[in-house]
Amino acid sequence: MERPVLEVRHFHAWFGNHEVVRDVNLSLQRHKVIAIMGPSGCGKTTFLRCINRMHELAPDARTQGEILLEGENIYQMSPIMLRLRVGMVFQRPNPFPHLTIYENVLAGYLLNNIALSRTEKDAIVEDSLRKAALWNEVKDNLRKKGSFLSGGQQQRLCIARAIAMKPDILLLDEPTSALDPISTAGIEELTQELKKNYTLILVTHNMQQAARVSDDTAFFYMGELVEFAPTRQMFTAPKDQRTQNYITGRFS
Amino acid sequence: MLLHTHIHIRRRQIRSQLVRTAIILCTVLTLLPLLYILAYIIRRGIGVMHLSFFLQLPKPVGESGGGIANALVGSLLIVGMATLMAVPVGISSALYLSEHPKGKLAGIIRICLEVLTGIPSIVVGIVAYYWLVRPMGSFSALSGSVALAIMMLPIMIRSAEETLKRFPLHLREASLALGVPYYKTILKVLLPCSLSGVVSGIMLSIARVIGETAPLLFTAFGNPYLTANIFHPMHSLPLLIYNYAISPYENWHQLAWGAAMVLLVWILLLNVLTRIMIRKWSVQY
After folding, report:
1. Could you tell me which chain A residue has the CA closest to the CA of B168?
2. In A57, A158, A194, B205, which residue has its Cα 20 to 30 A from B246's Cα atom?
3. Are B248 and B185 in contact (CB under 8 A)?
4. pTM of the model
5. What is the CATH number of the domain that holds A166?
6. Which residues pair with B17 in a beta bridge?
7. What is the 3-state secondary structure (H, E, C) of chain A?
C-alpha cells in the first residue's frame, strides 16, 4: 500500500475548554473523495479546518496530536506553506469582489506576489477553469468581476481558485449547502473529475451526498471519529451502533 | 367592508399624509439656510471671477483689481501636506481599531478621538504654535499643516473604521486559506475592498479642514506674496477671507467674497467627487 497522503494521529482540538475533536486517528489515500459526515456540532468542520490550520485563527483555539501531510508534520510547517498545499472551498462562495474572474483564479499567486509570465497565467487560468467545469461559461468574460456570476458558478470559481495552486489536498466545507439543486449536482459531478488529480475531503451534513460522491466515509459524533470505512460498507453494514442510528435517521 | 373599518383606514391615511407633509416642510426648512448662503455667496462673489483673480497677487490698498493666487497656492500646499501627514496615521489607526476592536490601545484611541473632536480648532492652532512655531522661530506653512492634520484625524479614522469593520470574515478566510499572510491579506484584500470608504473618509476630512481659519492664525499666519517655501509664513483662502473681511476697503471685501465662493465650490466639488468615488469603487459583499 502506498504512503497515505494524510495521516492523523491522536488528534484533539479545543475551543477554550470545549474539546471539539477527540482523539482522531485516520489515514487517507490519494485520488479519492473522502466524506466526513455527522450531525451538526460533531466537530467535522473544526477537524477539516485543522488540516489547513485555519482552526488556530480562532483566538482561544488549541490542538494536540499529529497531522502528517506526505509524512511531514503540518504543525512544524509554516501555515503559509501548508495552505498553499492544502486548498479550501468554503460553505458560502467567497470570490474576491474586487478582482476579475481571471484575477480570482490567480488570487493565490497574485496575493502572494508569486511572479508568473503572461503565458503561464493564461495557461493556469484556462486549465483551472476547465477542471472546475466553468471555462465554457466564463471564457468570454474573464475580465469581468466575479460577483456577477450565479452562486453555483461562484462556487466553481472558488474551486478553480483553489486548484490553481495545484494542492495535494482539497478541503470542501459543505460546498453545496448554499446552492440550489442543479448547482449542487454540478459540484457533485465535478468532485468525480477532480479526484483524478487531487484528494478531496468533503464535509457534509447530507448523508445522500456522502453516499453519492465519496469513496470513503468518516462518521463523526460528539467530536469522536466513530467509524471510517469505504462508503458502500459504511452505508450497508456499519459496524458501530451509533453509525447505524445516524444512517437510519434516528438522530440528525 | 364594515363602515367602521373603512373610517379607521381613511383616518390613518389622512394622518400619514399629514406627517409626510410635516417632514417635507422640515426638510425644506433645513435646506433653506444652506441654499440662501450658497446663493448669496455666489451673487456677491461672481463679480470678481476673472482669470486674473486666480493668477494675480493681491494689490496694495488703493489699487483696484488683484487676485488670490497666493492664497490659492497656499491652501493647496497646506491642505496637501496636512493630508500627507494625516493619512498614514489615520488609516493605520482605523486599521488597528477595526482589526482589534477590543485591543488595549483601542480604548485609548477612541477616547483620544472623542476628545480631539471636541477641542476647539483655535486650541489646536495654539498647540501647533508651541510645538513648531516657537521652537523653529518662525510662522510656517508646515506648522499650519500639522494643526490641520490633527483636525483631520477624527473624521478620517471614523469613516475608514466604519468601512473596514464591514469587511466580512468569509473573504478574510478566503485569502488566508490561500496561504496569503495576514499583512498581505490586509494590504491586498481588506484595503482594496474598502477603498471607497477609506478614500471618501480622506476626502471628507479634507473638505472639513479646508475652510478652517483659526488653526492657521498662529501657524501659517498669512503672507501677501506667493511662496512655496513650507518653512515660511504662507497665505490660505480662509485666512485671506478673514483678513479682507475685517478690512475697511470695498475692493478687499470683493476679493473676500470671491475667495469665499472659490472655497465653497472647492468643498462642493470634493463632496461630489467623493460620491462618485463611492459609487464607482464600492464593493458589494
Report:
1. A94
2. B205
3. no
4. 0.84
5. 3.40.50.300
6. none
7. CCCCCEEEEEEEEEECCEEEEEEEEEEECCCCEEEEECCCCCCHHHHHHHHCCCHHHCCCEEEEEEEEECCEEHHHCCHHHHHHHEEEECCCCCCCCCCEHHHHHCHHHHCCCCCCCHHHHHHHHHHHHHHCCCHHHHCCCCCCEHHHCCHHHHHHHHHHHHHCCCCCEEEEECCCCCCCHHHHHHHHHHHHHHCCCCEEEEEECCHHHHHHHCCEEEEEECCEEEEEEEHHHHHHCCCCHHHHHHHCCCCC
The shortest CB-CB distance from B193 to any of A82, A97, A111 is to A97
Cα separation of B46 and A154, whole Å? 55
- The reply to whether A1 falls in a domain is no
* List of chain A residues whose C-beta atoms are within 8 Å of the C-beta of residue B170: 90, 92, 94
B189, B283, B284: residue with CB nearest A111? B189
Cβ within 8 Å, pair A165-B180: no
A90 touches chain B (CB under 8 A): yes
pLDDT values of chain A reduced to their tens digit, one per residue, 252 residues = 578 899 999 999 999 999 999 999 999 999 999 999 998 888 999 999 999 999 998 889 999 999 999 989 999 999 999 999 999 999 999 999 999 999 999 999 999 999 999 999 999 999 999 988 899 999 999 999 887 899 889 999 999 999 999 999 999 999 998 888 888 998 899 999 899 999 999 999 888 999 999 999 999 999 999 999 999 999 999 999 999 999 888 765
| Beta bridge partner(s), residue A21 | A13
Q: Is A7:A67 a contact under the CB 8 Å cutoff?
A: yes
By Cβ distance, the residue of A54, A87, A110 closest to B176 is A54
What is the domain range of residue A141? 6-247
Q: Is A189 a domain residue?
A: yes
Q: Of A36, A38, A39, A32, nearest to A49 (Cα)?
A: A36
Task: Give the full edge-to-edge strand order of the sheet including A6-15.
Answer: A72-73, A61-69, A6-15, A18-28, A224-230, A216-221, A33-37, A199-204, A169-173, A86-89
Is A87's Cβ below 8 Å from some Cβ in B? Answer: yes
User: How far apart are the CA of A244 and the nearest CA of chain B, in angstroms?
Assistant: 35
The ipTM estimated for the assembled molecules is 0.90
| Chain B contact present for A96, CB below 8 A | yes
In a domain, A252, yes or no: no
How many domains does chain A fold into? 1
Is the Cα torsion angle A53, A55, A57, A61 positive or negative in sign? Answer: negative
* Residue A231 placed within a domain: yes
